Amino acid sequence: MNKFVFVAASMMGVAMHGHANEDIAQQANYNELGDLLTVSQAQGRFDWLAKCYDGLLVEIWEQMYNTTEIVPKEQKLNQLKALWLTPDKAQYLTFANSDFTNPYGWQAGNSDAQACSTMPPEYVPVALQTTQLTHEYCANKSFDNEWEWIEKVTVEDFVHESLSHDYTAVSGKVITLPAGRTVKMSVTPGNKDPQYPSYVALRVWIDWNQDGQLAANEIVYKSASDAPFQFTFDVPTDAADGVTLMRVASDAGGGSDDACKRTLYGEVEDYLVTIR
Ligand SMILES: [Ca+2]
Ligand SMILES: [Ca+2]
Q1: Which residues lie closer than 8 Å to 198 by C-beta, 6 or more apart?
Q2: 39-52 helix and 54-65 helix, angle to the nearest 10 degrees
Q3: pLDDT tens digit string along 126-141?
Q4: Using DSSP, how many helices (H) and how many strands (E) does the chain show?
Q5: Cα–Cα–Cα angle for 178, 32, 38, nearest 5°?
Q6: Where is the GEVED domain (predicted)?
Q7: How far is CA 169 from the centre of its chain?
Q8: How far is the CA of 78 from the centre of ligand 2 (A)?
Q9: What domains are there in the chain, each with its CATH number?
């Protein structure tokens, strides 16, 4: 149980501070933990932890309240729940190893209906995240990301560099888009053999109407090339305020306008976008 004492402190450190280079490197990994929950999933995360890892929640409570009073376990759990979960916004714990890389791809459950699974022994809670998304989006990941992937995405001043994964949810930072603005974007594909870059199809969707669907008419860019992609798109003047999802998909197999159809050779990256 001692590891959790370190945990609550390091978790708060990550959430609040971050000036040293090491913190920046950790922050980059934290952004890719892929743990992006809706409010109801965050509520489910708490219930799952209360079912499977109640001792962990008690440890965190004790770190936070630092009291010698004897408080029943149920009361501790209820206090944490009241602190993290409100009707329209919710916070949830995200787990990884201490360098934030989640090498086993382990995620805590999102519902107490899910069976308990065993956390890898070196894992700790690394972040207390706030839910941003209203909807749960369809999953998509590539069958093969060995030869082609997405290496870098920029939107105006926002930059995200990443390695090769079949799917990446960039959960720790948000792209801001003003309604009515023309926005510059670039996507740099990664290639296993950079001397002979593959010809890949690229698509970018943004859920402008925030209905939880990435419709074909919400494709803001679609092209194919063996060079990095540089383009602009227009943010609709009537785009609703709020946080929504941007999906970027590269596919050397041509891809599909259906954002839910599984990518063949490449990578799918999801980003949070806030419209102002
Ligand atoms: Ca990537
Ligand atoms: Ca939509």
Answers
A1: 147, 148, 189, 191, 226, 252, 265
A2: 100
A3: 989 988 888 999 999 9
A4: 5, 11
A5: 65
A6: 202-274
A7: 4
A8: 36
A9: 3-130 (no CATH), 148-275 (2.60.40)
Neighbour count for residue 230 (Cβ, 10 Å)? 12
Lowest mean pLDDT among 20-24, 44-48, 161-165: 20-24
**Cβ count within 10 A of residue 75:** 10
Residues lying with their CB under 5 A of ligand 2, a single-atom ion: 207, 209, 211, 213, 215
Total length of the chain: 276
- What's the 271 CA to ligand 1 centre distance in angstroms? 12
By CB neighbour count within 10 A (0-12 exposed, 13-18 middle, 19+ buried), where does 193 fall? exposed
The token pair at 247 is 């999906």
Q: Which ligand is nearest to the CA of 248?
A: 1
Per residue in 11-33, pLDDT tens?
A: 544 444 445 577 767 777 778 88
Print burial letters for 18-48: b (CB count within 10 Å at least 16), e (below 16).
eeeeeeeebeebbbbbbbbbbbebbbbbbbb
209 φψ region: left (φ > 0), alpha (ψ -120 to 50), beta (else): alpha
**Amino acid present at 122:** E
Backbone phi and psi for residue 120, each to the nearest 5 degrees, phi listed first: -55, 140
At residue 15, what is the residue type? A
Q: Write out pLDDT tens, residues 213-224.
A: 999 999 999 999
Q: Nearest ligand, CA of residue 151?
A: 1
Q: What are the backbone angles phi and psi of residue 37, rounded to the nearest 5°? A: -110, 150
